[in-house]
Amino acid sequence: MKKKLTTVEFRGTPEQEAKLLAVIAKYEGVDGKMMPVLQEAQDIYGYLPIEVQKIIAEKTGTPLEEIYGIATFYSQFKLNPNGVYSIAVCLGTACYVKGSQAIIEEISRQLGVEVGSTSPDGKYSLEATRCIGACGLAPVMTINGDVYGRMTKDQVAGILAKYR
Amino acid sequence: MDVNVKINGKDYAVKQGMTVLEAARVANIDIPTLCYLKDINEIGACRLCLVEVSEGGKPFKMVTACVYPVSEGMQILTNTPKINAARKTNLQLVLSNHEKKCLTCVRSTTCELQRLCNEYKVDEDYFKGDQPKFAIDASSPAIIRDNNKCILCRRCVAACKTMQGIGVIGANDRGFDTHIGCQFEKDLGDVACVNCGQCIVACPVGALYERDDTDKVRAAITDPTKKVYICTAPSVRAQIGECFGYAPGTDCEPQMVEALKMLGFDGVFDMNLTADLTIIEEANELISRIQNGGTLPMMTSCSPGWIKYCEHYFPEFTENLSTCKSPQQMFGALMKTYFAQKEGIDPKDIFFVSAIPCTAKKFEVGRPDQSASGYPDVDVAVTTREVGRMIQQAGIDFRALKGTEFDKPFDFGSGAGAIFGATGGVMEAALRYAAEIILGKPLEKPLETPEIRRQNGSDDGYRTATYKVGDLDVKVAVASGTKNAKQLLEDVKSGKLDVQFIEIMCCPGGCVNGGGQPYQPASVRNTVDLRALRASVLYNDDINCDIRESQKNAAVWKLYEEFFGTPNSHKAHEVLHTSYIKRGL
What we know:
The complex is a heterodimer. By secondary structure, chain A is an alpha+beta fold. Chain A has 7 helices and 5 strands; from the N terminus they run ααααβααββββα.
């Protein structure tokens, strides 16, 4: 799926930047360094916003577009931060046939957050996941590790109310 | 060392290290390609160059010829039913999500995909793939991207990143979402693109093209209140023939001039004249900087792609840029000041068009500080391709024209002006004049500087030379292509390179290889040295010109006598010079 650009304000700290610069320095002169640099940058910030990619571009002399191309190619890289409440709806086969698509659409509608992105205030992120191995509970979703099984569309509002 | 191979049953000895594709060319066989561009895009992605090979007596297998190296005793089959079927299937897959609006596509008849689909008689609707609808990116004043036509060959990406060393475009997302775009999905007009247009001439299909300004020109010509003039850059005469089936390297100056007159311009002028004017202004500026402790090394300012590159990527060097406008802008400024005054025309009624081999000039016409008369110096810049299109659309039989001469009073430029279109040419032209000023007397014969011309068909790196003029050592450097410019500027920055005067052209090889030149398919680009062929037209013009030095062009001095006074005068600064912006990234 096409990656969504974030609308969440960047809140990087000087400490995070110092760590990032150390990572870039560690890989200086190493061939094929961009993957590990991006992985470690994501470990530091939790995602790869433009502010972080720009630092990497400038310090490694790599065009920003090339870095963005890598970040959007691999599913492991995130352009949006996890929300304070990180919502994940399983779209694995069992959940999908049990109607999880309708559930994720309902959540997206109620929160005004597109699938694969984070609300501008950073409060909610909404993600579609592959099978999480709880097919017996299908359709299933998690919010910060709380598991909600055998979901129906009408339950969405009630569950979200707990996280307002 | 050679290796022996059998191509379609016949024996050939080919160079070791060659690819199967190159070996086949030795046997006069052109294997079809869509993604391959020699040296810059060798990725084996399009799968059109499939051939069958057998090595060491093993069974035949299918490989991509563009990246597969030959080996001793290899047997190569380039034309079997199996290969043809595979190529046909691959073409049908390419078409499955291609927007097939071929009737009105800008590349219809020059499209490499269209040609192959015809040759392989594909069923264009065989596979019905998902066709995502992309918005056309028309944010740039020069380059338009239509991803609905894109086949993801990456030739534009390679031209931008590998050849020019810029890399503002690349492949974003993956799978069916893959598309060529800019960082964080910005539009091309909002990133540090220099508008060189090398992506356009690399594109095999109609996914990239210049902003077509021909309608504006036609509208002006039919407007009775406008006087419409056009001037043609040195390189246009060396390329326009290619739009009408002439071989690259054919000089079509007389036919070009006649065709433009038939289109209805009120005057057709030669930009070589303002190339000469540029030399007079620029050489005097250089000498003044040397004598008065100005910023050195001075860098040429004729190439608007290079100017924008400098402003984005090396803003610390914008003071080094000559303040001279480019010949195109000088011409427009001249038309709307000197010429308007002389002819008694209100500059607002003059519509001035320049014909150029360059897409970056479309950006240049809209730059600030390019309106000497209060109106834009140049109203519209049209590429060689657009000029070709206008001539074609008007039904003019270009090949049947006898040809005619440029209009007075701007009908003549020297040989020095002509060579502006090739890398090293501006420098050579400037040195021919600077040497005379420094020595205080004319040289016995025009200076020629083979050291700084393009060497051995290569555009890699940069060239330097030192010329002893009287007691003075004039140290110069020349680069073409922004990748080479970057290397040169970094060496200036580090102190490794110490020169007084630098010529940089944005496109590799100079304007003769500009982004507005006629399309040539990869099969030609990969095998013919287009830059050398086109440049030969300009060097022949120079050799055959009675006047080979800008300072001997009487028409230029007439301008000083009647209007500017002296080179670099206050008036000259007002009309012929400009300023730059530190853009950064």
